[in-house]
Structures are given as structure tokens and as C-alpha cells.
């Protein structure tokens, strides 16, 4: 009789190999060694996305993570079919979506979060979800675009879809947006990530057993991607989606001041001035480089940023502010699974500003570019023209896929004897 090992079985764990020719995981073998013989057996493996998705040529798809995520996105196998007539002009689609898309009715519960330096942001939760959902339900943080908030149609549609799938959803209304209070002489900006960090920390502390995800649109997407890049390996989010991200703010600013885009520029600057005038007393007697009259009566977003934003956040010029606040520079540092969805004809988030090379080289990123869509439009799909944007099912498939993987990983870690995703070698 052979003597037993003094230390007992020694498990050696390693990940199964990946076949680059078949784009699938190779079924591992389970090795069992004893003093007398060696036995081999095939270990079962759960791979929710083993079959490759055939991508329709109407999309531009690239990214270092395409092998990982494309099988989970079946919507991309069908052609992108914009709603007739509306998609004939990118401005028509953009304006139609902004003014005529339905706004789902949902009761929200507001929580005002005081930041460490005295500011405040408003978090809108779905009323009753604390009673309806278990504490480990995944949490989705929504970041609207510039001057946007929880009342915007694209935000509401995503909120409703995620909630119907059992997700806890919270809308992050930045300072002054969505009637969020302004308590200090400082608004939010594309460069400032302090509020984002505090919101994520607050939500994590409240639901410590839940996985957190983020979805951002336009400027909210820019802030989200910059946050992912700065946090990098330490990011608490389990996944994120960026939509209509301007990425390169210098390029976006150049296009913003051309042709019909001036209409959007005037509309957004008017919205910024409206928010500012509600809280103008906070900015009385501000010295230094502040130009309060310019900010209060800005005719363009650039004027508002020059008079107020870039000074508040310590930039010497508007161009320096835009250059240093662009999320295009953050992509290479993103370690969190990230899906970026853009429209090739977006008038506000230019196609030429997308950091394609960095996305292509990052194994955590996937880019989907639709041929049409305008800005925050995407009037296509089963719910067009008045219902949810075409992007919503795609976003949901992506984060649901990540959540399933997270649950599987958690269960595997809790069960070291599981043979689903790891080799086990016993000596």
C-alpha cells in the first residue's frame, strides 16, 4: 500500500484554452492522478455564447473584445433598418427623437447626496424597488447627457427596460440637472469625476452584494468612460455602455459651430443659462478669471464654458479644458467590459472623433457603429418611431450577459470543486 500525501490533494487551477480558429473555448480534460494510474475525462463546460454571431454588413464592428461579446448580441445579426423618412436626415431624426419620443411614466424616489466638498447631486431611484427586489439585484447607474436628467425619454426607456428584467436602476442627475440642487458655486463638467466616484461609492456601500453597471449618453458617456479609464484595474463597475459619446471634445467643438449644428449649440447654451440663472446668487462677487455676465448670457456652449466651466476647474483656456476632458484618451486604460455604440451620422458626436485604434487594441472594448441614428435618436427597430431607441435591447443583452458571467464566476469561486470553468489537477 502506498503512503498518502501528508498535505492531501493539491488542487492546481488554470483556465481552459481558447481556440482562435473556431472562436470557441476548447473543452478541457479533467486530470486525476493517483500513485497507480492517471485517468482522463472530459469536463462539462457552460459557455452561454459558444456560437459565433454573424454580423450584418450594415454595422461597423471592431474592438479587442469582439470574440468575447459578439456572440451575446444577436441583434447585430439583423440589418439596421431606420424608420422610413425620419432617417433620411440626421437632424430630422435627432429632433424627432428629442421632441416626439414617448416618455414612460414611472414613479421615482429622490435622494440628494451631499458630496465631501459641500456640493450635491440628485439620485432618482424607482419607488418601491427596495421592497420588490432582493438586495443582491444588479444595479444600473444611468448618466444622462449635457443638461439632461431622469425626465428625458431615452433615460426613461432604458430605466423601464432594465427594471422589467429585474435590475435596480438609479439615475445620476448631475449638479443643476434634472432639478438637482446646486449648493456651491460649481457646476459639473466633462473633466470632473469627483461626483461620479462618490455616487459609485455610495451605491456600493448601500448594496454591497450587488454588481454595479453604468450606462451613459453623450456627455454622460464621456464622463463614464473617463471614470473607467482613471479607475482602471480598481474600477468597482462590472461593466459599462457608452452611447453617442463625443469622445474627442476638440473635434466635437469644431463641428458644433458649423452649419445646422449651431441650432443645437444655441439650444444647449440656453439650457445651461437657465440652470445658471436659478443659482446665480451663488456666483455673486466671483473674482479672478470668471466672466459671470458671459456665462449668464452665453449664446454658445463654448461661451458658457469660457466664462464659467473652465475657470471653475482650473483650465487656462476652453481648448485646454476640451483637450484634457476628452474620453478618447481614456480608452487605452479601460479594464472594465465596455460597449460603445455610435451613429455614423451623429451631428454632435462626430464619427471622426471615435478612437478606433485604441478600441481595437483594448481586449475589454467593443465598438458598434450604426449607419444612421443621429444624436440620441436611433429611431429604428420594433418600437419605432415613438418607442424605445433601437439601442436599448442591445444594451440590455450586453449587461445581462456580463451579469450572468459574474454570477457564474461567483458560484465557481464559492465552489472550488466545480469543473465548469477550471481545470482541477489533484496530486
TrEMBL record:
Matching InterPro entries: AB_hydrolase_1, AB_hydrolase_4_CS, AB_hydrolase_4_sf, AB_hydrolase_fold
Record GO terms (molecular function): monoacylglycerol lipase activity; short-chain carboxylesterase activity
Gene3D superfamilies the record matches: alpha/beta hydrolase (3.40.50.1820)
PROSITE patterns, sorted: UPF0017 (PS01133)
Domain of life, per lineage: Eukaryota
AB hydrolase-1 domain boundaries: 138-376
PANTHER family associated with the record: ABHYDROLASE DOMAIN-CONTAINING PROTEIN, ESTERASE_LIPASE_THIOESTERASE FAMILY PROTEIN
Family: Belongs to the AB hydrolase superfamily. AB hydrolase 4 family.
Protein name as it appears in the record: AB hydrolase-1 domain-containing protein
Amino acid at each position: 500500500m502506498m503512503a498518502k500525501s501528508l498535505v492531501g490533494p493539491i488542487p492546481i487551477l488554470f483556465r481552459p484554452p481558447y481556440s482562435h480558429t473556431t472562436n470557441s473555448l476548447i473543452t478541457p480534460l479533467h486530470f486525476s492522478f493517483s500513485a497507480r494510474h492517471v485517468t482522463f475525462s472530459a469536463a462539462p463546460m457552460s459557455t452561454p455564447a459558444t456560437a459565433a454571431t454573424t454580423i450584418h454588413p450594415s454595422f461597423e464592428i471592431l474592438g479587442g473584445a469582439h470574440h468575447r461579446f459578439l456572440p451575446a448580441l444577436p441583434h447585430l445579426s439583423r440589418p439596421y433598418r431606420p424608420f422610413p423618412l425620419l432617417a433620411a436626415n440626421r437632424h430630422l431624426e435627432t429632433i424627432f427623437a428629442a421632441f416626439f419620443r414617448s416618455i414612460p411614466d414611472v414613479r421615482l424616489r429622490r435622494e440628494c447626496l451631499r458630496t465631501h466638498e459641500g456640493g450635491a447631486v440628485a439620485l432618482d431611484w424607482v419607488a418601491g424597488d427596495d421592497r420588490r427586489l432582493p438586495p443582491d439585484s444588479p444595479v444600473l447607474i444611468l448618466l444622462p447627457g449635457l443638461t439632461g436628467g431622469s425626465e428625458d425619454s431615452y433615460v426613461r426607456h432604458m430605466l423601464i427596460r432594465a427594471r422589467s428584467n429585474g435590475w435596480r436602476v438609479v439615475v445620476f442627475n448631475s449638479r443643476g440637472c434634472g432639478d438637482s440642487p446646486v449648493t456651491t458655486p460649481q457646476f459639473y463638467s466633462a473633466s470632473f469625476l469627483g461626483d461620479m466616484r462618490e455616487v459609485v461609492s455610495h451605491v456600493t456601500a448601500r448594496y454591497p452584494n450587488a454588481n454595479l453597471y453604468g450606462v451613459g449618453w453623450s456627455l454622460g458617456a464621456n464622463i463614464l468612460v473617463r471614470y473607467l479609464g482613471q479607475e482602471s484595474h480598481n474600477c468597482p463597475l462590472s461593466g459599462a455602455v457608452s452611447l453617442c459619446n463625443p469622445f474627442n471634445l476638440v473635434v466635437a467643438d469644431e463641428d458644433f459651430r458649423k452649419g445646422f449644428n449651431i441650432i443645437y449649440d444655441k439650444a444647449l447654451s440656453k439650457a445651461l443659462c437657465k440652470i445658471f440663472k436659478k443659482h446665480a446668487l451663488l456666483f455673486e462677487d466671483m473674482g479672478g478669471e470668471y466672466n459671470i455676465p458671459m456665462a449668464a448670457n452665453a449664446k454658445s456652449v463654448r461661451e458658457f464654458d469660457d466664462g464659467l466651466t473652465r475657470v471653475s476647474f482650473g483650465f487656462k483656456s476652453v481648448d485646454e479644458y476640451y483637450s484634457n476632458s476628452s474620453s478618447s484618451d481614456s480608452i487605452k486604460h479601460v479594464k472594465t467590459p465596455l460597449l460603445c455604440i455610435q451613429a455614423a451620422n451623429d451631428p454632435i458626436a462626430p464619427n471622426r472623433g471615435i478612437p478606433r485604434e485604441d478600441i481595437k487594441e483594448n481586449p475589454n472594448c467593443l465598438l458598434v457603429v450604426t449607419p444612421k441614428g443621429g444624436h440620441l435618436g436611433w429611431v429604428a427597430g420594433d418600437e419605432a418611431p415613438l418607442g424605445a431607441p433601437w439601442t436599448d435591447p442591445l444594451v440590455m443583452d450586453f449587461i445581462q450577459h456580463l451579469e450572468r458571467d459574474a454570477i457564474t464566476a461567483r458560484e465557481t469561486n464559492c465552489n472550488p470543486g466545480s469543473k465548469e470553468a477550471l481545470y482541477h489537477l489533484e496530486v
